[in-house]
Design goal:
- By secondary structure, this protein is mainly β.
- The protein is built from no helices and 9 strands.
- Strands 1-2-9-4-7 form a 5-stranded antiparallel β-sheet, with no helix packed on it. The protein has a 4-stranded antiparallel β-sheet with strand order 3-8-5-6, with no helix packed on it.
- A hairpin with a 2-residue loop joins strand 5 and strand 6.
- The model has no long low-confidence stretch (mean pLDDT 95).
Length: 102
C-alpha cells in the first residue's frame, strides 16, 4: 500500500507559478494537488487528455472553452481534451483543487 500526503510532497515548478504537487504520476493517470492563493490563477492552456477538477476547499472560477462558472467545495468539473481551460481564485481565501488526468 502506498499513501501520499500533500504535506510530504515537494511543490513542482510550473509555467503557472502556483503551488502544484504531484501526488500520483503513472502511465495511466496523474493526480495533482493545486493551491491557488487569493488572486492566483492557472494560465489558459490546452491538455491532450480529459481532465477532472475536484474542489477540496474554497471558491473559484473555471473557464472551459467559452464557458465560465463559479465553483465551490465538493464540485467536480470535467474538462474535455483539447479545449482551452483555466482556473482562478478571486476570493480572499485559498482555493485547493485536486486535478486528475488519464
Amino acid at each position: 500500500m502506498k499513501i501520499f500526503k500533500v504535506s510530504d510532497t515537494e511543490p513542482n515548478q510550473n509555467p503557472h507559478n502556483v503551488d502544484t504537487r504531484k501526488l500520483y504520476n503513472e502511465n495511466l493517470a496523474q493526480v495533482v494537488h493545486i493551491t491557488l492563493k487569493p488572486g492566483e490563477k492557472l494560465k489558459r492552456h490546452i491538455t491532450p487528455v480529459d481532465v477532472l477538477f475536484y474542489v477540496l476547499e474554497g471558491t473559484g472560477f473555471v473557464e472551459i472553452g467559452e464557458e465560465k462558472i463559479e465553483v465551490t467545495k465538493d464540485s467536480l468539473i470535467e474538462s474535455p481534451a483539447k479545449i482551452p481551460h483555466c482556473l482562478y481564485n478571486e476570493s480572499e481565501s485559498n482555493l485547493r483543487v485536486l486535478v486528475m488526468k488519464n
